[in-house]
User: Fold these one by one.
Assistant:
Number 1:
Amino acid sequence: MTLDATYLRGSIAGVFSVVQHATCPENIIFHFLTTHRLSSSLRHTITTTFPYLKFHLHHFHTDLVKNKISISIRRALDQPLNYARIYLSHLLPDTVHRVIYFDSDLIVVDDVVNLWEINLNSHVLGAPEYCHANFTHYFTPKFWSNPHFSGVFNHRDTKPCYFNTGVMVIDLMKWRRHKITEKLEKWMEIQKKYRIYELGSLPPFLLVFAGDVEGVEHRWNQHGLGGDNVKGLCRDLHPGPVSLLHWSGKGKPWLRLNSKRPCPLDQLWAPYDLFKHAPLISDS
C-alpha cells in the first residue's frame, strides 16, 4: 500500500480490516510505499496505531515519474505516489517474490490468505476482470485510430478487458523477468507526446496486461463505491458475494462521513475508521 497524508485515514482502515479478518495476522507483512519527506511521521503513526504489525517502509523517489505524469480528469489521480505501484519490483527486495497490491480506499472482509493463494498460472498479474465494461472508453479516439497503438491488443491470450489496479496479485519474479516497469514507462512516454488516455496510472496497466490477466473472483474487488470520477455519486454493491469493498472513484467514505453526507455503503467502512476526526486534507 502507499502511505500519504491525503489517504492516511483510508490506509489505516484498510490495514485494520486486513488484520482483523486474518486467521493468522502474524504471517502478514505489510510493505508501505511513501516519500522520504513523510516517512518518519508515517512510521510513528503506524507503530503507535499497530504496535505488533510487521511492516517495512520503502521510500519512493517522486523524481522517477515527475516528468512522465500527464494531467488526468481528476487532480488526485496525478499524484506521484499513484505511480509507485509501477516500481514495486525496484522498491522491494529481490527476496519478495509475490505481493498483493491494495489501494488505500478499501476494506477487506475476508481472510486475505484466500486471495494470496490464487494460482497465477503463467501470468504476471491476477485481478478481477470486468469484460462488460466498454473497453474503448479508457482510451482516446487518437489511440484507436492509430494501429501502431491499438494493435498492442491484437496478440493477447484473450479478449482485453478492464481491470481495476487497486487490487492486484503480482508475481514479482515474472515482473522483473519481463521488464514490466520499462513497458509501463514506455506507454507513459507515449501518453505525454500523443495524449492517448485520460485516467492517470490505470491505462498503462491496461495497455501492458489487458487480455493477459489471471482472472480473480469479483468478490475480491467490489469497486466503484466512490462513484464516478467527476460527481462521486452513491453506488450499490455488485451482485454476488463480497470479500473486499473498494471506494474507487471521486467519493471517499471518510470525507462523506465527515461532511455528514454519507452514502449508505459508507456505513460498512465506518467500523474500521480508527481516525474519527476531520480528514487531514481534502481530495478535490
Note: The beta strands are 29-34, 54-59, 98-102, 106-108, 125-127, 129-130, 162-163, 167-171, 214-215, 244-246.
Number 2:
Amino acid sequence: MAMNFEIPTKVKAWVYREHGDVANVLRLDPEYEVPEVQEGQVLVKVVAASINPVDNMRVNGVFELPGFALPAVPGYDLAGIVVKVGREVKELNVGDEVYGFTWHAKKHGTLVEYTAVEESFLALKPKKLSFEEAASLPAVIQTAYGGLERAGLSHGKSLLVLGGAGGVGTLAIQLAKEVFGASRVAATSSTGKLDLLKSLGADLAIDYTKVNFEDLPEKFDVVYDAVGQSERAVKAVKPGGSVVSIVEYAKELPPPAFFFPATSDRLTLEKLKPFLENKKVKPVIDPKSPFPFSQAIEAFSYLQTGRATGKVVIHPVP
C-alpha cells in the first residue's frame, strides 16, 4: 500500500545559534525549514524524542563532532514515522515506524517536527513499545550493551553498576541479567531508588549516601561507571577484571578503566528487539516525563539536576 504524507515546508524546531547555557541559547523557531533528504537518508516525522547529558554538552560547546555547524537543532534520540525516502535507501519504506540514535547528525537533531536521518541509524520500532518508550531507548541501550560487551561481561560473571537508576544504568542492570547472563549484579543509587534497582534485577542495591562501594569486601568482574568515578571504580574490580567509563572522555583513566564512547548501531537495536518485544528488558522513563515539546527547556533543566530516574522524554512533538 503506497502511503503519501503531506510534508510541510516550514515546521517548529528548537534551535541554538550560539553555544552557551541551554536556557539562554535555545529558542523555539516556528519557521524552521524541513531538511532536504540526501541519498541514504529518510525524512522522519518525529513523534517523540528523548534527551541525554551529551545534548547539553553539545549546546554548551563542550563537545563537538567533526563537520558540525551552527545554527543547530539539539537531540539524538527519536521515534517516529518515515514520510520520505532518499534514492539509495534499501530497507526502510514510507509509513515505517522507526526509532534510533542519530549520533553523527551534523545539525539536524531530533527536537524538531521533521528531521532527515541516515537509514543506517534507524531500526523498526518494536510493536509492543509506544513511541514514547521507544524514543527513550536508543542511546542508552546501545551504550549499555556496547560497554558491557567491550568490558567482557559474560555468563556467570559479576557486575557493579555505578549510577544504576540513570538512563544507561537502568538498561545495564537489565541487559547484564537478561542478555549477558551475569550471575550477580550490584548497583548504586540514592536511598529512594533502591527498590527500583531491585525491580530491574539487581541482586544488591547499594545506597551511595551511606556506603562507599569501594570499601565493600566484595569485588566484581566488571564495573560499569555511568557517573564518572573511575578512581574509586578501579578499587572495586577483581584482578583481571575491567572498568568501563562512559562519562570521562577527556581524562586519563586509571587502569583497568577505559572510556567507551556512545555509538549508533542499528544492529544492536535489532539484536535486542526480541528482549524488548517480550518485555524482558523494559524502558525506564522518569515519572516527570513526558515533557511537551513546548517545554524542552524545562526538560533540559530537569535533566541537569542529575536526579532523573531513567530517561527524560519529550512527547508529543507537534
Note: Residues 138-150 form the longest helix (13 residues).
Number 3:
Amino acid sequence: MNRDSIMTETRVSRWYFGGIASCAAACCTHPLDLIKVHLQTQQEVKMRMTGMAMQVVRSDGVLALYNGLSASLCRQMTYSMTRFAIYETVRDKISSQNQGPMPFYQKILLAAFGGLTGGFIGTPADMVNVRMQNDVKLPPELRRNYAHALDGLLRVWKEEGIRKLFSGASMAASRGAMVTVGQLSCYDQAKQLVLGTGLMTDNIFTHFVASFIAGGCATVLCQPMDVVKTRLMNSKGEYRGVIHCLSDTGKLGPKAFYKGLVPAGIRLIPHTVLTFIFLEQLRLYFGIRVITST
C-alpha cells in the first residue's frame, strides 16, 4: 500500500434500517395519513382536511386519529423494509464496484424495482391499514372492528379468502414503484447535487433539504395511483377491477385523481423528511463501518 494514501471511514446502512426509520416516521405522521384516507373515500367532496380532522375527534375522540396504527407499522415493516433493503443493498454494492455514485437512470430503475416488490409484499397490511382508518367513518353496525393488524389479516383471510388480502395489489405495487422513485432515487440525487456544490456538508440540514425535495416529487408522482388504490381496498365489491375503478373515478373529473393532494403532501413530505433523517442518524451512529484508502 502507498504510504501516502489516506484512510477514510464511511458508514453504510444495514438492510433493515429503512424499515425502522419508516416506522418511527409513521408514528409521527399517522393522523395525517388517516385524514388523507377519509378524504379519498368520500364520494363527493363534502369536507376539507381540517373539517375532517375535527369530525373524527368530535365523534370518536383524539385517539381515533391513531386508528390503524398497528397496521401502519406492519405495512412499514413489510413494504418499506423490502424497498429500502433492495435499493440500498444493491446501490451500495454497485457504487463500491464502480468507485463512485450510480447514474440517475440506474437509481430510478432500481428504486422502481424495489418499490414494485415492496408494494406487492406490503399489500395485505396496507389494505387492513386503510380499512382500520376508515372504520370510524362507518355507522356502528357496518364497522369491521379489527382489534389490531394481525386480527385484521386473519379475519380477511378467513372471511373473504386469501385473494382478498391482495385486493388492489397491482395498484399498490405500481404506487410503491412511483413513491420509491420519488423518494429514494430523488433523495439520493438531490443529496448528491447539494453536496456537490461544496456549500453544505453531510449533515442534518442537507438531509432535510434533500428529503423535502424527494417528498414533493413522490407526492405528485403517486397521487393518482394512491386514490385508485384506496378506493379499491376500501370497496365492498362495487368495482370489478382496476380499469372499472379508474373509469368510475374518471367520471368525477380529472381533479378526482388528485383528491386529497394537499393532505397527501402534508403527510408524505413530513413522512419522507422524518424517514430520511432517522435513517441517516441510524447510518451515522449504527451503520456498517467501511474503511477506504484514497
Note: The two ends are 11 Å apart (CA to CA).
Number 4:
Amino acid sequence: MAAVGRKLSREELAELVSLALRCGLSQRDIAGLPSVQKLLGRSRSGSGAWRGLHASAALLLLVLLLGGPLLQPGLRLWFWLRGLPPHTQMCALGLGGLHNPFRRPLDCRVCRNITGVDRRSNLSHEEFLRAYAYSMQPVVVEDGQRNWSAREVFSFEFFTRIYDNESRALDSSASECQFFPYDTEFVNLGDVFSMEAGRAAGMDSKAKPWYIGWSNCDSSAASILRQHYKRPYFIPAISESSKMDWIFMGVPGHGAHMHIDDVDNPSWQAQIKGIKHWKLEPPAECYYECSSLEAIVYPGQIIVLDTNKWFHETHILGEELSITIGSEYD
C-alpha cells in the first residue's frame, strides 16, 4: 500500500470491492499470479484482520491495473482516494489507440532475470536473433545507424518541406494516418508544422513545450525519408519490416507519458537527433517479479524493445530538438 501513501479505510476498501465485482473479474482469476502470492505471503506475518485487508487491497489494485469494462472509472476512483484531481491524470482521460485493456497477463518468467538495458556494438544477426529480437531483453545498439544520412538531414524545417499542404499525413482523419498529440493542443500534423519558429525550436521560454508522433502514411514523403535511413544492419533480411514507419519529435523537457502499446510486433526506435531518457516498467502483474529499467539513448543509437510488454515513458534531455524514427519487425 506504499503506492497509495496511506492505509485504506474499510469503507474505501468496500467501495473498491464493489467496483471490482462490477468489472466482472474475480479474485480467483488473479490469485494464482506469482506477484499476488508474494503479496499474500508478506501479509501472513500480520494479524488476521489486517492480513485479509492487505490481501484484498493488493488484489483490487491488480484488478484496476489489469483492466476491464470499468477501467477508467476505477482509475478515477483510485485518484480520488489519493487526493489527485482525475482530470489532470493522463491515463484517466482516455487510453487511446495504443492500449489494450484486455491484454492477457504476462508470464513473469520472461523478465524475471532482466536487470538492465544492454548496450552493444557490432551486433551480429545471429546474436540479435538469439538474445534480443523476440525476448524481453531491451538493447541499445550504439552503432545502429551505420551509413545513414538522417542525422545530417532530418530537422523540423526538413519535415515541413516534405509534408506540403497536399500531404495526406496532415489529415489525421485518414484511418492509416495516425497522429499522437500527447499532452499538446495539436489536432493534426498540420497544426504542428504551422507553429511559430520559436516554439518549434524550443527557444521560447514562455511557450508550452511539445512532443508529438505520427505514422508515415504519405508514400511520397516516405520515399524521401527512406533515402536517409534503411533497415538497421543487425536485423536480418529474413525479418520483414513494417511498411509503416513512426516518427516522434519534440523539445527538451517533454516526452511521452507512461503507456504500453498494442502493435503487431517488436520494434526499434532510432534516435536521430537529441537525447532521450527511457523508463521501462513491467506490467502490474510482474511488479514484484521484474525490475524497472532505465536507458539514455544518444544520436546515432537505436533502442530495441517489445513495447507490447514493457510500459515505457520517455523524456527529452539536453538542449536539442529530439527526432526519433522507428518501425516494427517480425
Note: The chain has twelve helices and eleven strands.
